[in-house]
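ok, trying the design again with the full structure, not the truncated one.
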């Protein structure tokens, strides 16, 4: 669980994020693993654009030898300023040297 606060172009915001993930090893040698991710997010914004929103989060993390991680996540939700439900996607790649 995470709590965030800060400022964006439209004003100040606070957010709450709860995610759960688990790791499933692949193959006999265990070099690869996948980790499904599920979660929920809440957002409150004050300023030029104000309101609150919420979203469901789904994704997967792919791990290789504890050194490389690919994260692909999507969320469907309603956020301040949106006319209706929106889909948003994120892709991140991390490496440990």
């Amino acid at each position: 669980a995470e709590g965030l606060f800060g400022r964006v172009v439209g004003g100040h915001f606070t957010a709450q994020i709860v995610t759960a993930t688990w790791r499933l090893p692949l193959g006999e040698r265990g070099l690869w693993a996948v980790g499904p991710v599920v979660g929920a997010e809440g957002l409150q914004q004050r300023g030029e654009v104000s309101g609150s929103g919420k979203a469901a989060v789904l994704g997967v993390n792919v791990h290789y030898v504890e050194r490389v991680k690919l994260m692909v996540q999507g969320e469907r939700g309603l956020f301040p300023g949106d006319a209706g439900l929106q889909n948003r996607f994120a892709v991140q790649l991390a490496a440990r040297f």
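Keeping the full-length input from now on. The mean pLDDT is 92.
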